[in-house]
Design a protein that fits this description.
There is one protein chain. The protein has 255 residues and is an alpha+beta fold. The chain has a single domain, classed as C8orf32 fold, CATH 3.10.620. 42% of the residues lie in helices and 18% in strands. Helix 4 packs antiparallel against helix 5. The longest helix is centred in the first third of the chain and has 25 residues. It is globular, with a radius of gyration of 17 Å.
């Protein structure tokens, strides 16, 4: 079990060198083979830039985390990482459920497990993308840290990588916000640290999708509209997290 788990973990995003070569290729519109991406919008691969490099760096750290999580998953008593055991306890609860209940369990548990804290307060920097184990070790993070942790937990709980995304959206105030997204039964659900309920992409309002990330890299939504006129549920009084400054992500995309 450990050998199989280790091999699977190292294949989490494929080899880093192969991934980099692929994503550094000439940018081309991303066209999904079988179904629409979140929001049903065209996205174009980012071939370079600070945001592209940041995502590649995160993928490497995710690979490292997945090796440790696989080892701990196979030998809980021998696991020396309290952060891994805490994350695996959430994954275990998700594994006991099916369908949307699985997603809801993990969304709720991670929202409650991580306290909302800005990168400036935690790291003294403006935009840090922490790996899941780093986030659970510190016990705090901002919106992208919640989204990244959910991305990893959902994969461990059995969700296919093809059905997982991290999204960055900009609200009407010009602030960026990150969420995890999962495709289930042909529909994309967003898992947001600001609410316990999962919202379909078609029901999101007052946001403009800007970037989408998955195992294949990062892509920019092209001429995405403001999702302001779409009916959707009112926001819940849930766990607000500091939004990453809009200027930081916008600048990183073109640096």
């Amino acid at each position: 079990m450990l050998a199989c788990g280790l091999i699977w973990s190292l294949a989490w995003f494929g080899s880093v060198s192969g991934l980099k070569a692929e994503t550094l290729a000439a940018a081309a519109p991303y066209v999904p083979a079988t179904s629409a991406e979140p929001f049903g919008l065209v996205a174009t691969s980012l071939a370079a830039g600070s945001l592209h490099e940041k995502w590649l760096g995160l993928q490497r750290r995710l690979d490292d985390d997945m090796v440790q999580l696989a080892l701990c998953d196979g030998d809980r008593e021998g696991c020396v990482s309290p952060a891994a055991l805490k994350l695996l306890a959430i994954v275990d609860a998700g594994r006991q459920r099916d369908g949307r209940a699985k997603l809801g369990e993990i969304n709720r548990a991670i929202n409650l497990a991580i306290r909302s804290v800005s990168d400036e307060a935690q790291y003294g920097e403006t935009d840090v993308w922490a790996s899941p184990l780093a986030t659970f070790m510190r016990g705090g993070g901002d919106c992208e840290d919640y989204a990244i942790a959910k991305f990893a937990a959902l994969r461990l709980a059995g969700i296919a990588l093809d059905d997982l995304r991290v999204l960055i959206m900009r609200d009407i105030r010009g602030e960026d916000h990150a969420v995890a997204a999962v495709r289930m039964d042909g529909r994309w659900l967003t898992l947001d640290n600001r609410r316990m309920a999962m919202i379909e992409d078609a029901d999101i309002r007052n946001y403009r999708p800007t970037f989408v990330m998955d195992r294949d890299g990062i892509r920019r939504y092209t001429a995405a509209p403001l999702l302001a006129g779409m009916a959707g549920p009112a926001a819940e009084p849930a766990l607000p997290a500091p939004a990453t400054p809009a200027a930081t992500i916008a600048a990183a995309a073109v640096d």
